[in-house]
Amino acid sequence: MDMQSVHELARLLGASLAIGLGALGPAIGIGLIGRSAMEALGRNPEAKGPIMTNMLLSIAFAEAIAIYAFVVAILLLFVA
């Protein structure tokens, strides 16, 4: 293997690990958020508004982390 193919392999491996592991945490987090919101709604259906607002805000923050991982993967693919 020459040095250029090693560099290409490392770049592709880094990008795939960045998006793979970077999306795993938010995916688990969003699942836990949804489960907790459904449990809270089951216990107190009258509090639907605040529960849904907090749930959507938490999902947006978790999704932002996945977007950061995607940006890092794109940067590794096209810039490095």
Topology record:
Blueprint: H1 3-43, H2 48-78
Structure description:
- The chain is mainly alpha-helical.
- The chain has a single domain, classed as F1F0 ATP synthase subunit C (F1FO ATP Synthase).
- The protein is built from two helices and no strands.
- α1 runs antiparallel to α2.
- The protein is rod-shaped and about 65 Å long.
Largest sheet properties: none
Distance between the termini: 19 Å
Q: Can you identify the CATH superfamily?
A: F1F0 ATP synthase subunit C
Please state the average pLDDT score.
93
User: From the 3D coordinates, which CATH architecture would you assign?
Assistant: Up-down Bundle
Name of the level-1 CATH class? Mainly Alpha
Instruction: Give me the secondary-structure category.
Output: mainly alpha
Helix content: over 70%
The strand count comes to: 0
Poorly predicted sequence stretches spanning 5 or more consecutive residues: none
CATH fold assignment: F1FO ATP Synthase
Element-level helix/strand string:
HH
> Judging from the principal axes of the Cα atoms, what is the shape?
rod-shaped
The count of domains is 1
Count of DSSP helices? Answer: 2
What features would you highlight for this structure?
mainly alpha, F1FO ATP Synthase, 2 helices, rod-shaped
Quick take:
With 80 residues, the chain is mainly α.
